[in-house]
Design goal:
Structural class: alpha+beta
Radius of gyration: 14 Å
Largest sheet: 5 strands, antiparallel
Distance between the termini: 28 Å
Helix content: 25-40%
Shape: globular
Number of strands: 5
Strand content: 15-25%
Length: 126
């Protein structure tokens, strides 16, 4: 039986808020007992341009990189990256009304949160 609980949320990109269309571009995975937090991302540029041909892909990639850097505790991500791991997770999954936001938080059990993160990214994003 898996020994560790984990929480995850999908990172969604809605390039034109007024249309409400979004694509999944990443996941945030947190396992408190393993002190594990990651936010891998993958933006399918073809799908994104199908939703909004005028979107600024470079800027979107920069903003997605912030999710990953905050999760890793990278000091270049600013003061949020210096917070304890649980606080960083809660900041990453907090509701926001921007083009990049997370969906609801879900939970599960696992032996290896890193493997779960890769599986979720593959299944839900790629």
């Amino acid at each position: 039986m898996p020994a560790h609980s984990f929480d995850y949320a999908i990172i969604r990109l809605t390039p034109r808020i007024e249309r409400g269309e979004s694509i999944n571009v990443g996941v945030v995975v947190f396992c408190r007992t393993k002190r594990f937090l990651v936010a891998p991302t993958h933006c399918d540029q073809g799908r994104l341009q199908a939703l909004d041909a005028s979107c600024d892909i470079a800027t979107i990639q920069e903003h997605l990189a912030v999710f990953t850097a905050v999760a890793q505790g990278d000091p270049s991500a600013g003061p949020i990256a210096h917070l304890p791991i649980a606080d960083r997770f809660h900041w990453l999954v907090a509701p926001r009304s921007t083009i990049i936001a997370t969906g609801p938080v879900h939970c599960g059990l696992c032996d290896d949160p890193h493997a779960v993160a890769l599986q979720l990214l593959q299944k839900l994003v790629k």
